[in-house]
Amino acid sequence: MGDDDRNRPQGESKDPDVPRYDWESNKNQNPVHDGKINWDFKNPDAVEEEIKKIDRNVRFDLKSRTRKDIPEPDEKFYNFRASDIAVGFNNRPPTFAKRSGAPKERKTARIRFNIDGEYSDLLLEATFNITEGCDEIHSFLKGEIFIPESEFNISMVFPPKPVINSNQRDLYTMNIVGNVQLNVTIKSKAILKPEWRQKFKELLEEKEAAAKAVEPQEPPKEP
User: Where is the segment annotated Disordered (predicted)?
Assistant: First the structure.
């Protein structure tokens, strides 16, 4: 990193074609929703109906642009629906937590954004308040889960490298422009995908069956 990078004001791109992002004029647009959802896995239809009643748009104040050889505007702001966000996480190495002063329970989250039909991954720091049972659910969803009743405080203190889509042919990239910091709070951001509903139901039935198996059986009453 050169002197120009260190001295450049926060939020300003070293690309002269991309102007500095005006945080003040954009910070209150389309605020993050804080809808409360009653996650009743015994009745997933009711959950989905409740979800439909709230505004699921989430505003991420990311300054992003596409490659100049793509016939789209150079600058975009993207609105992501809750259903477009999937989270896979692993524990951070203890050395990182000590060095950064982060709590031990800090996780690394890979947030997958659905951008115009293409998936791009950005690696963000995140702390999680994960409800009971999510570890079990995560284990059979194989690394990708919508975490119910959780809060994410996503903090990005440096821009990632350009993200290339899965075909690795460099047809689509997404940048965070400039040395910016992103702080977003997301609450209750889980959509029960139809293909997962059965899995939740099966998990619940297994847990209930296991609980019944260990319940003490009352001896029959003598007449």
Answer: 1-39
